[in-house]
Amino acid sequence: MTIDWFVVTCEDEAIHLSVRPPGQDSWSVDIPWASIIRVCFKVEDLTTSDGIYVFTDLGDESVAIPLEAVGGNELLVELVRRGLYDEDLATVATTAGMGLFCWPPD
Q1: Is 103:38 a contact under the CB 8 Å cutoff?
Q2: CATH architecture of the domain with residue range 3-103
């Protein structure tokens, strides 16, 4: 199932998020690739969307991005391509039943 109100666009300099949840305020944000310091992929059970958590040097909080967002899968591929997430760990995470998989590791 695609979450069509959450759109991820991978641009040259940044990840662009455009979020328009039904019945709530819309928001958008750009996350510069250069500011990303850690990425976690949380694999959930079948009733909850898996999520990508992006941590930056811009603040203490992460940005949660559902993998089922429009462009969510493409984001994971781009994070691996740019060396911001390990390819082998991505393979393990996408085939796991549940768990939290972070790069770089602690």
Answers
A1: yes
A2: Roll (2.30)
